[in-house]
Each structure stands twice: as C-alpha cells, then as structure tokens.
C-alpha cells in the first residue's frame, strides 16, 4: 500500500508538470525526433549501430547477457542496454517516472497503469504508436491485419495502439495448476484427487502416514486470484470475471465465503502449510523437494524442476499434474488457470523522450517477422536446431544437454519462448519428463473460458476512479482471506467484509468494468 500511495502521489504531481507538453509529445508520434519516414525499402541490420536502453517488468538489477541478446543485436543492428526491471506497482517504477530519466523501451503491463495506457500517452510518458506502426512496423501491421481478434485486444476503445504486445499461443494460455507426489499416492493406495473430498482424504494421509509437516504448500498468489486454485470447485475465483454476460467480482460472491470456510478448516487440521501467508517461491521448492510437502499449486516448469531435483536421490519420486478440483465426481470446475491471448503482460511501450524512435520501432518489429519468429521460437540454426525436411529439429544441446540442463533451461538462453513482445509460437519443446508434457492437458479441463474477462480498457477517467476504489478493496480482501484462513476471525465475519466492499465503492467499480466490457465487444 505504501508503494501504491507513493506511485499515485508521484503521478499526480507529474501530471501537473506534464500537462503543457502533451501536444509536442503527440506530435512526436507523427514526426519522431531523430528519424523521418522513408519510402525506401527497409532491411535489417539497421545502419548506424543505434543504441537503446530497455527496462523490463521483473524487479531486479541488470540481467545476465545471453546468446539471444547477442544474436538480436547482430541481426537487427541495434544495441540494447538492459537496465534491469521494475514492475508497474513498484516504487522503483514511480521514482523513475518522477526523475524523467526514462528508458527508450518499457516492457511492462500497461493495462495496470493508473488511468490506463491512454493516460500514460496523455501524460507524455509513452508514445501513441498508430502512425509509427504505419511507418516503421510492417511486420506487426501485417500480423494485426491477419489476426483481427488480436488487433481487437491490443488497442483501446478509441483505437489507440500503445505497445508492442506479447500474445500467447492457444497452447500457451494454460501453464499452471495443482502438482502432487504420485509416488506417495501409489504407496498409500490412493488415486489422484479430483474433488475437494478426495483432496481432503489425500492431504490427511500425507500428514498422518507420510509425516508431511505441510501436506499442501503454496504462496498466497495461488489462493484464488492467479488461478482458481481450490476456489474453482466452489464456482468462484478472485478478481473480476464474467457470468452470462455480466461482470462480477468473485470476492463478493456467496460461495467465496464457503470456499474460505473449507480452507480455514483445512488449515486448522494442519493440512495447509502453516507458513503459507509469508513463504516465497524458493521455500515452496524446498518443502516440495525435501518431502515436507506432497502437493502445491504452481507452474508447469515446477514439475520438471522437482522431478529433476528429487529423482537424483529418490528414483521413485514422481511429481505430476492433478486436475483442478471439482465440486463432485465427473463435473468440471468452473475455474482453473487460463490467460487471455493478450493479458497485457510483457508489452513494450516506447518512451516519448527517446532520441531514436525508428530504431526502437524496428527492434521491436523484428520479432513479428518470419525470421524473428523462428529465432524467438527455435533459437539459433546449427546450435539449438537444424532444418530437416523443411522442419526444425532440436539438437543434442537441447534434448541431451551435456550439462544436464532441461530443454527449457537451454532455450531460455537462445530464444524468447515467452514474456517478450511477439506472437508466441508453439515450439513443441521436448520435456525431460513426460509428466511435464502431460500437465497442460490435465489443467485445461475446466469451464474457465466462458468466464474470462477480455483485456478491457476503461477510459482514463474511469481508470482513475477504478484505481481509487480498488486499491483499498484489494488490500481489504487479502486481509480478510488471511484472517479467516488463519483462524484469527470467524468465517461469518466475511459478510462484514462484503459490506465494507460495498461501502468502498465495489458496485461502482463493477459498473465501470461492465461498461468497458460492453465497449470491448463492440470494437
């Protein structure tokens, strides 16, 4: 909350300071400084070896330079200095805006910007890209013309393009869910759980017969917001979603209270990690690989990581995906984990202060070319793959790595498989363990698709109002969840929290989201 207050205060001051410069910044979108539109055919590498600065959305210092970075520089002719990262809601991001020392390219979740992406353009931080796409981004332009649904997602209601998007492939939209020790189940003569009752039986057995100190462990982000988690069995999920054309807020739904009642009971029985409210990802990993926990909720690559770590000393260890739990046997849970093809993450906006707009556009546009697509998907020909009968085939560096690295670990160095401004392609990357490859089909079996709220864009005024309402409500629901699950408050107190949400303006927030949703459908 302190970070958000600092951010909002800083932006309020900056808005006043930038109000007189909007016209000049918008003009730079049509006549960018340091470059001019040219009718000549462009080809890579770009002459002059321009240099640009880049900041991503992952908090941390300057990342290690990888082979993919060198190859991008070689092919595009553009040098990139990576400044490290700062998520939109982090204090580092707001301080950077206040300083005026902006990177040439911001990779972030611009849908989360206070006031929305249009506000970021209006305040003079990032450029409106419409004219620039026509001038300098033929690959992105062609991609949008060929994919009208993507085009619909990545612009605002008034047609403003504000960033180069990361678009997930259909297969890439699901990437997380429950993970469980199948070897423990086999030992205990139990099947993979499919319902809440079966999960209760399994976790109780893990505690009593495997001496698991934390039968199931997970971080708070998996309670019911990033994924349906166990809440999906109750027909609810945290955050906003759609029920029969109406936008609802899951925390307000009566069945969310029943979900919390079950979680509080499990916690009281010692089935949920007593430390879940404060643990980080490395701690979850340690508990899963040490035998202290037998189940978690996490991402697909966790399965590969856990099997690789534990099977070195325990060859029988077997981490597999479990389906999202349903209310009853044979039913599908309403929620699991499913992203929109465009969720707003890893979207690259161009700073309004950059000295070489064309270079920034050309560097980003390369990913949407056929050559860029192949590089981002399969890496370097002759290194990570070779062409055979017109198809890429991975080399032993990937499939039988001499250092024992998993194929995904290798490809992270030589390609951009995810979280980069591009249209993601399915790379059919071989997994070291079949359990990893099988996970996504297990987790896809939900009704999540029909509830998914698309990437709507409230107007700048609506977004400001939404931020004012939701900042406090988001903090309130997290407080309520933890207090009830940890047993410091009875579950019936949740009714009081629901009333507080109403008093804080949740019904107005729902009106805004509904209006934005209806406008989105008309794009």
From TrEMBL:
<feature type="signal peptide">
    <location>
        <begin position="1"/>
        <end position="21"/>
    </location>
</feature>
<keyword id="KW-0472">Membrane</keyword>
<feature type="compositionally biased region" description="Low complexity">
    <location>
        <begin position="24"/>
        <end position="41"/>
    </location>
</feature>
<keyword id="KW-0732">Signal</keyword>
<keyword id="KW-0564">Palmitate</keyword>
<keyword id="KW-1003">Cell membrane</keyword>
<keyword id="KW-0449">Lipoprotein</keyword>
<protein>
    <submittedName>
        <fullName>Extracellular solute-binding protein</fullName>
    </submittedName>
</protein>
<feature type="region of interest" description="Disordered">
    <location>
        <begin position="20"/>
        <end position="48"/>
    </location>
</feature>
<dbReference type="InterPro" id="IPR006059">
    <property type="entry name" value="SBP"/>
</dbReference>
<dbReference type="InterPro" id="IPR050490">
    <property type="entry name" value="Bact_solute-bd_prot1"/>
</dbReference>
<dbReference type="Pfam" id="PF01547">
    <property type="entry name" value="SBP_bac_1"/>
</dbReference>
